[in-house]
Amino acid sequence: MLPRLLNKIAWIVVGALFIFSGLIKLNDPVGTAIKLEEYFEVFSKDFSTVFLSLKPFALYFSIFLSSLEVVLGVALLVRWRTKLVLWLLFGLTLFFTFLTFYSAYYNKVTDCGCFGDFIKLTPWQSFSKDVVLLVLIVILLVTQPFLPSFARNGSKTAGLWVALAVALSVAIGVYAYQHEPFFDFRAYKVGANIPQLMKPSAPLRYQYIMAKNGQEFTFNEYPADTTYKFKQMVPQNPEDGPKITDFNVWNDQGDFTKEMFLGNRLLVVVHNVSKTDAESFAEINRLLASLEQNQNPKVVPVVLTSSSSQEFDVFRHEVNLAAPYFFADATVLKTIIRSNPGLLLWKNGVVVGKWHHNDVPTLQEVQELL
């Protein structure tokens, strides 16, 4: 009776978790690709430079691996080719377990991206999750007789469900890449108050680890006794800290971060000119021209890029982009918007609109949001 119960629990949990994990990644395939690039860079330094040759294909790996998770989860739940599916799940989970252990033990990649930006896990939490998942799959392998495959006609139905899962998974990933994620879990989502998110939500509290006479002591207040030697300051409520800590905008004349929060701003984000979609600037330029001709309400266009001034000066003349440009960190720009280029509409620092370059808004759409 117990093996049958364990089998049923493991069957539901493993299948549902793989579907959930895959769908979360497919919601943001570019974010998953960025995480894969991190792993490729780490492995190129620690194992072989051949991993760098995989970086151009990170997006394809992202959609393939995420779709594979969904398909295997569906296949398990409908009990399609159970033996094959279980061994594929075992191999995939074993691989993920190695990745998360390596990241945790050597502190290489601090967030595995297992559940995208929806659920953030520490490296050791990710490893623990994979170990539990591995145990559940082993239980399924051992108790496989309690997980019978469908009969002949049922097998055809199960096969149709798996085929549907393949088609939908790939379609979701491709659509999310060609537009923005269906669900935005990042700090720069529509409705976010950026200057507010750059402040702590409550006063931060710390514990102070001090040493004296070979012993360690913990204080909630910094000790006045100067014989204690400071070792470490540990935050007690990090969840109350700023949600955004790295948003900075500048040019050769200085810092312009605060200016980005004044009035209505249309941000044109260009991650890197060498990888941007140059053809999309024809439509973007039409929008900028419309905004210039219609000053009620006034919207100030601003370009943010991580490219050098030399590169961007050449590029903006090539695409006839007539707007002042500023610099920002490349990682921050990729976090703000996945599209390259992408558009954001800010009203006094609040994100009121966000568009992929395939979905450039009309003047009327912009005005309706202000």
UniProtKB/TrEMBL annotation:
Pfam families: MauE
Superkingdom of origin organism: Bacteria
Keyword Magnesium: no
Residue ranges crossing the lipid bilayer per the database entry: 9-26, 57-78, 85-105, 131-151, 158-177
The UniProt record lists the keyword Membrane: yes
Compartments where found: Membrane
InterPro entries per the UniProt record, alphabetical: Methylamine_util_MauE (IPR009908)
Membrane topology label: Multi-pass membrane protein
Domain Methylamine utilisation protein MauE residues, every copy: 6-142
One GO cellular component, as annotated: membrane
Keywords: Membrane, Transmembrane, Transmembrane helix
GO terms, biological process: methylamine metabolic process
Protein name: Putative membrane protein YphA (DoxX/SURF4 family)
Species of provenance: Rufibacter quisquiliarum
